[in-house]
Amino acid sequence: MSKDIYVVVEQRNGNIQKVTYELISEATKLAADLGEQVVAVLMGYKIADKAQSLIHYGAQKVLVLDAPVLEHYTTEPYVRGIEYVIKNYEPNIVLFGASSIGRDMAPRIAGRVHTGLTADCTRLDVEVSKYQEYLRKATNLPEEKIMALDTSDRNLKMTRPAFGGNVMATIVCRNYRPQMATVRPGVMELGEKDTSRTGEVVMVDAGLTEADMNVEILDVVKQTKKAVDITDAKILVSGGRGVGGPEGYNPLRELAAELGGEVSSSRIGVDSGWIEKDRQVGQTGKTVHPELYIACGISGAIQHQAGMEDSEFILAINTDKFCPMMQLADLGIVGDLKKIVPALTEAVKAY
Ligand code: FAD
């Protein structure tokens, strides 16, 4: 019988990515509803010492696939590793980050194990069975008893934006196992790390060798520039088409530096090559929830809002007082950002 929630760990150069901890935190909540365990699947080379940090975030078991062929991410050995785990351990649910790696692996694995995949989820819940609902209404039974009596399959409700973010689609995979989803980084709440948590670490030999490689790695070029993670920033000064060009982000950088924040962007800035891709907010960018989001020259298209609408406080600076961002904002300044942003920076400096 399929059982337990498996989280596919994402690591780069041995560093576990934040999305993995977010997924383990979310899986811990779902596992409580399902009466199941959270199992993390860690793949890499000389990687086993990272297992404890996964346990500290809530994994009860870590399966470690350690092999030289897994030193750098390449599609085929990683896909085979997860395929091996699914076929031998029969998980109920398998979760991946909707990152470039997760998006590469998950559909291939779904195809190989003949199940469905809901990509780019922003919410996961457990479907409540009718029998459970009935027991709650008609009896005074305690929750543990209700859960014990209800032996029906409890499916995962996977919610994702569809039709350009205009509808939220909830998808349930009733007849196939495992239920698989990729989940957007930054949307699930990161739980507390607790170093007193203990768990089991199991070394798994999936028999992966060089023969599983269908590409040859000629060179590995490490990124020398420090990558920014705008999902961590408490303050974001975000620019859109209204900044007018690459140099238009400079005043935003100055304001961000004064406020101790980061600069982000709408997709227009990224597609035009004005700013790096890892700073894009929105449906095809990152989901952020900073304490303060300053939208400069961003109209507030639905695909942009999808990535920032949960910001605690939104300040819009725009020449168009009727644009959607002004409707969404807590505070709006109508005017030319080229005048307003430097004035704000001066005001912060003087404060
Ligand atoms: P515009 O909509 O052109 O708005 C520019 C704004 O600047 C206007 O409101 C204007 O009044 C204002 N302005 C101009 N000059 C000034 C000035 N001097 N001072 C002050 N204000 C000024 N977009 C994203 O951002 N993120 C995504 O992830 C994303 N994903 C997408 C996915 C799909 C499938 C699709 C179809 C689209 C996606 N988009 C995304 C694009 C989105 O639909 C919009 O085209 C985009 O967000 C618009 O960017 P913008 O607000 O910067 O530009």
UniProtKB/TrEMBL annotation:
<dbReference type="InterPro" id="IPR029035">
    <property type="entry name" value="DHS-like_NAD/FAD-binding_dom"/>
</dbReference>
<keyword id="KW-0274">FAD</keyword>
<feature type="binding site">
    <location>
        <begin position="297"/>
        <end position="304"/>
    </location>
    <ligand>
        <name>FAD</name>
    </ligand>
</feature>
<dbReference type="GO" id="GO:0009055">
    <property type="term" value="F:electron transfer activity"/>
</dbReference>
<dbReference type="Pfam" id="PF00766">
    <property type="entry name" value="ETF_alpha"/>
</dbReference>
<comment type="similarity">
    <text>Belongs to the ETF alpha-subunit/FixB family.</text>
</comment>
<dbReference type="InterPro" id="IPR014730">
    <property type="entry name" value="ETF_a/b_N"/>
</dbReference>
<dbReference type="InterPro" id="IPR001308">
    <property type="entry name" value="ETF_a/FixB"/>
</dbReference>
<keyword id="KW-0813">Transport</keyword>
<keyword id="KW-0249">Electron transport</keyword>
<dbReference type="GO" id="GO:0033539">
    <property type="term" value="P:fatty acid beta-oxidation using acyl-CoA dehydrogenase"/>
</dbReference>
<feature type="binding site">
    <location>
        <position position="318"/>
    </location>
    <ligand>
        <name>FAD</name>
    </ligand>
</feature>
<keyword id="KW-0285">Flavoprotein</keyword>
<dbReference type="InterPro" id="IPR033947">
    <property type="entry name" value="ETF_alpha_N"/>
</dbReference>
<dbReference type="InterPro" id="IPR018206">
    <property type="entry name" value="ETF_asu_C_CS"/>
</dbReference>
<feature type="binding site">
    <location>
        <position position="241"/>
    </location>
    <ligand>
        <name>FAD</name>
    </ligand>
</feature>
<dbReference type="InterPro" id="IPR014729">
    <property type="entry name" value="Rossmann-like_a/b/a_fold"/>
</dbReference>
<feature type="binding site">
    <location>
        <begin position="280"/>
        <end position="284"/>
    </location>
    <ligand>
        <name>FAD</name>
    </ligand>
</feature>
<feature type="domain" description="Electron transfer flavoprotein alpha/beta-subunit N-terminal">
    <location>
        <begin position="5"/>
        <end position="217"/>
    </location>
</feature>
<dbReference type="Pfam" id="PF01012">
    <property type="entry name" value="ETF"/>
</dbReference>
<dbReference type="GO" id="GO:0050660">
    <property type="term" value="F:flavin adenine dinucleotide binding"/>
</dbReference>
<feature type="binding site">
    <location>
        <begin position="266"/>
        <end position="267"/>
    </location>
    <ligand>
        <name>FAD</name>
    </ligand>
</feature>
<dbReference type="InterPro" id="IPR014731">
    <property type="entry name" value="ETF_asu_C"/>
</dbReference>
<protein>
    <submittedName>
        <fullName>Electron transfer flavoprotein subunit alpha/FixB family protein</fullName>
    </submittedName>
</protein>
